[in-house]
Specification:
Low-confidence stretches: none
Order of helices and strands: EEEHEHHEHHHEEEEEEHEH
CATH architecture: 4-Layer Sandwich
CATH superfamily: Ribonuclease Z/Hydroxyacylglutathione hydrolase-like
Structural class: alpha/beta
Oligomer: single chain
Distance between the termini: 34 Å
Strand content: 15-25%
Bound molecules: zinc ion
CATH topology: Metallo-beta-lactamase, Chain A
Strand order of the largest sheet: 1-2-3-4-5-6
Helix content: 25-40%
Length: about 240
């Protein structure tokens, strides 16, 4: 069972298998209060959460992972190349200029999203004291047995997480199913100002297009049942 959590701006996911839960990403830190009611609605509690697996180290995905680890000792998994950022709470160095960033704020959607993110703690890069680093191709020993596929570009250690037994692919921000600046719907690679390398982000799309997954779950934008190949083609066509 997969449940989408979060808001119209940021999604994270509850993946349940045999009564145990993996959180895929941990939203924004201000979403912590929404977790217990969401678990209760799924008939579960915090005691059932066995792992948090991060698609990457950005603050709208690390969210309350560190807080939950401190309070409940839940292990946090992240790709090796994003592990230092996750532990030390470092902000990423994106390739966009400050002017690109300001340009984004001409759009009402971007201003709304930014206001929301700041209000929910997204301006601060939260730290996770201890992380379990993984590498490309690893199958994680967590509920749902996620397999990590390294898709760098948005961050150095970005991954998509494949759950074959759930016919699901968690794509994080390898592709967004909304334009995060204009709010336009559909598959888009994040804008340059949000990536460490936009060229690499487009290259990484090739790593997920051949995967078998009935549903794609995004960090931003609605889930899609179009399949990885169609979603990737759509994102490439918008370049
Ligand atoms: Zn994001």
């Amino acid at each position: 069972m997969i449940q989408m959590l979060g808001t119209e701006f940021v999604h994270f996911y509850l993946l349940e298998e045999d009564g145990e839960v993996t959180l895929v990403d941990a939203g924004l830190s201000g979403y912590r209060d929404t977790l217990d009611p969401s678990l209760a609605a799924a008939g579960r509690s915090l005691a059932d959460v066995k792992a948090i697996v991060l698609t990457h180290a950005d603050p709208d995905h690390v969210g309350f992972a560190g807080e939950l680890q401190r309070s409940h000792g839940i292990p946090v998994y992240v790709h090796r190349a994003d592990s230092e950022r996750t532990r030390e709470g470092k902000t990423k160095r994106s390739e966009g200029s400050p002017r690109d960033m300001l340009g984004m704020l001409r759009h009402a959607h971007a201003r709304r999203a930014l206001r929301h993110m700041v209000a929910k703690g997204g301006a601060k890069q939260a730290k996770v004291a201890e992380v379990i680093p993984f590498d490309d191709g690893d199958e994680l020993d967590v509920p749902g047995r996620l397999r990590a596929i390294h898709t760098p570009g948005h961050t150095d250690g970005h991954v998509v997480l494949h759950a074959p037994s759930h016919d699901a692919l968690f794509v994080g921000d390898a592709v967004n199913n909304v334009h995060i600046v204009t709010g336009a719907r559909g598959a888009h690679v994040a804008p340059t100002a949000a990536n460490v390398s936009t060229d690499q982000a487009y290259e990484s799309l090739g790593r997920l297009e051949g995967l078998a997954a009935g549903t794609l779950y995004f960090g931003h934008g609605d889930p899609s049942t179009a399949g990885p190949r169609a979603v990737v083609a759509e994102a490439r066509a918008r370049r």
